[in-house]
Structure formats: structure tokens, C-alpha cells
Design goal:
Helix content is 39%, strand content 17%. It is of the alpha+beta class. Strand 3 (80-85) and strand 4 (92-95) form a beta hairpin. It is globular and about 50 Å long.
């Protein structure tokens, strides 16, 4: 997917633009580029699955494209993105994306609550992922304003399923990225995840 985004945002404009412009792409242009890259990547993975006669295969995705002080965020599957900030009202963490699992779909439908979804038998059954037959009709895109020293945590379910938000906030508040990554990986492995 990164190659597709690179071609759309860097390579194509440079060969098609006669003027040397320092104008940044708009948020709308970047959003379209992310959606197109996800669709192209999904089609590519579907071809790989078909050509290899694999039964069920695919990948999850968490993507954040940052332009100036805005993060454009999307995901597929159960790889989540969190935003950690300590601006204005103290340290806070917020889950930006939602899981695309059967349990989350049932929760969104109001049939079960979040606590039940965390233990539901469909919590590991993916509704959408790279390689699935059909992507969501309206791919979720989120826009997050970023401030100095804010952090975005893009993680697999091996991390997100092993921590409560308060634990993630405490780890991210340490500030040192090497320490944060080591702690997230080691504690998620202790919790049974694969980091």
C-alpha cells in the first residue's frame, strides 16, 4: 500500500507538473489517495489469494497520513489506532478507529455493549480486512488535529487486546519512543499477544 500512496502523492505529481510548486496536497486529495490505495491493495491481495488457491487469507490495516497538523486515519480489521495527547486538559488517550469484527458489528447495532463485545465469540471474526470480497461501502476515514508531542499508536490486536486504555495512556506518557515500544511489545507478549 505504501508504494501506491507514494506513486499517487509523490511520483505522479512530479512528472505531471511542469512548475516547481511547493503547494501541499489538500486534505481531500490525501483522503482520496488513501481510499484508492486501500482499494488497489485489496484487489492485489485478492488476486494473490485466488492465484494461490488459498481458502481464507488477508491482512489487517492501520494507516495514518500526516499533513501539517492533521492526521488522516483509516483501518481495516482489528488493527486499531489511538491518539495520545496532553494538551489543554491533561493527558488523555482516545481510540480513533473501531474494530471490523463480528462482535463490533453486533455492538454497533446495539445488541450488545462494549464489555460484552470484548468477550463475544465473534471478537476475532473479521468483517472487513485486506483481501475480503467487499470493502466497507463507506470506508471509515477519521481526521485528528495534532499538537506538539502528541502520539499516534497504530497497533495490531496483539497489543490492543492486551491493554486497557488507562494502561496505554500510562505507557505512552513516558515519552521515550524506544521505551514505549519495548514495553508495549513485552507486556503484550506476556499477555499472550504476538505484539
Amino acid at each position: 500500500m505504501s508504494l501506491s500512496l507514494f506513486e499517487t502523492l509523490v511520483f505522479e505529481p512530479s512528472i505531471n507538473n511542469q512548475e516547481k510548486s511547493k503547494k501541499l496536497p489538500t486534505i481531500e486529495t490525501l483522503t482520496i489517495a488513501i481510499k484508492e490505495a486501500i482499494a488497489e491493495t485489496n484487489a492485489h491481495i485478492k488476486r494473490i489469494i485466488k492465484n494461490n488457491s488459498w481458502d481464507k487469507s488477508g491482512a489487517t490495516l492501520a494507516v495514518a497520513l500526516i499533513s501539517e497538523a492533521i492526521a488522516i486515519i483509516s483501518n481495516l480489521g482489528d488493527s486499531l489506532i489511538y491518539h495520545y495527547s496532553h494538551q489543554n486538559y491533561g493527558q488523555k488517550i482516545r481510540q480513533i478507529t473501531d474494530n471490523h469484527t463480528l462482535a463490533s458489528a453486533i455492538r454497533r447495532g446495539g445488541i450488545i455493549i462494549s464489555e460484552m463485545a470484548a468477550h463475544h465469540e465473534g471478537k476475532n471474526m473479521l468483517e472487513f480486512y485486506l483481501g475480503c470480497d467487499n470493502l466497507p461501502p463507506d470506508l471509515p476515514i477519521h481526521y485528528v488535529s495534532l499538537y506538539a508531542e502528541d502520539l499516534l499508536l497504530l497497533c495490531s490486536d496483539g497489543v490492543s487486546s492486551n491493554f486497557q486504555e488507562k494502561e496505554l495512556k500510562d505507557i505512552l506518557s513516558e515519552g521515550d519512543l524506544k521505551k514505549i515500544s519495548k514495553k508495549l511489545i513485552s507486556q503484550s507478549q506476556q499477555g499472550g499477544g504476538n505484539g
